[in-house]
Predict the structure of Bactericidal permeability-increasing protein.
Amino acid sequence: MLPCVMVVFVLLSCACGENPAVQVILTNKGLQYGKHEGTGWVQKELEQITFPDISGSVNIYIGNVYYTLSGVTIKQCDLPEPNVEFVQQKGLTTSIAGLSFALTGEWRTSFGAIHDGGSFDMAIFNIDVTSAVQLGSDAGGHLSVSSIYCKASVGDVAMQFYGGASWIFQPFVKHFKGHIIGRIQSQVCPEVENSIMDLDHHLQAMNVSFDVNEVLNFDVPLTGVPDIEPSNMKLGLKGEFNSIKTHKEPPFVAQEFILPELPGYMLSVGISEFTLNSASFGYFSAGELQALINDSMIPPCIPFHLNTSSMGAFIPQLPKMYPGLLMNLQVYARQAPMFSFQPGSGILDVHVGVKATAIEANGTQVPLFTLYIDSSFTSEMMIADGKLKGSVKLNNVTLTLGPSEIGVFKTDALENGIRSGMGMALSKLNAKLREGTILPRMKHAQLVNTVLKMQKGFVAIYSDVEILQTDRSSYLSTSYL
């Protein structure tokens, strides 16, 4: 296949029938940028290719001369930018007109008992290639690509022999030309198709499930065949996080959403609230959303200690029943935190339980009480100066007394204290969010001119892509003749 098309798949840094939780749109602008960048990359790669030997024979009226052209390398390549287009509900077409090469290599001939050799220069002019590929998906959710059409023609070949008895054979170049043109022309499309098959095998070998850390993996198989229009290609991905430990499916499913196009960008990505909620559920089902808090974890700047004496300001009977004892707080999520998105903002609902125990001198932990804390936060996110920025504010927090071994007590003062503590924590968090976090860079490309918009049910990211000039992988067939 004409390798510049493969750059398109690099940009897409890939259970049918379900709603995709992640949507990706590659626009024609992105396709043309990939074509432009790919042309220069392919031209550099071609200069490093050594072609396979070309052997044959030609009749020079007094007998057959057998020849071999070996060590064929490219000295110069005139590679016009190809024309690459989306084809409605099919895939891509690629065409190149006027591709020319200057080659050099060694020649050997045998004519009866006479053997000779030397070097040669060859120029191949006006190679035209048109190729069409079908894009689809396999049962495992991998992007698939297959050849549906290829046509190639070679305009002319010029050859100059040096060394040995080249002066004898040079007049017979016109006999070689037709054979060489035929050999090249007959091999172009098979090699294009071989490259397409190699690319398809590469795509089938790609992971569609990744371990994010020791707790979660991320499933991103295609949920259906690509939706291709003349102006863009749309991919739907599963986009679900799962607990590596429990493998439990979340008790909710991805809802359908429509990712609107924002004109002028190469790439659009929509991430639904399902994706974030599946990550939250994965942590919850794995038992990761809990923590034990003790007095040593209280920052020295806070004039409060986690003991029965300090807690007496909120629970009067506590220091009377258990005087001078340190305390532990077992904090745990009662259910998975849930995200929801609205135009311009996101909401996070958190439901927490806190089990308090007193620590006696012999280390025995005495149960005291359980509190239920329900809170809601509103967040705003944006991308500016190449950074992800945002802010979070507390909407509401309520505290309810659960089972209590020390009797009933009022929770108003504790609730106010928790609200005050959350306010201080959010103040520090917002200071960091205002500074922002630099957007992650992909291995071979980075996002530029990026815009983030929060919509109902999903977050939309619109961006251009810049191919990095270093550390590009080489994916190019080394046999074109």
Remarks:
- The helical segments are 6-10, 28-46, 166-169, 173-205, 273-285, 308-311, 317-321, 412-435.
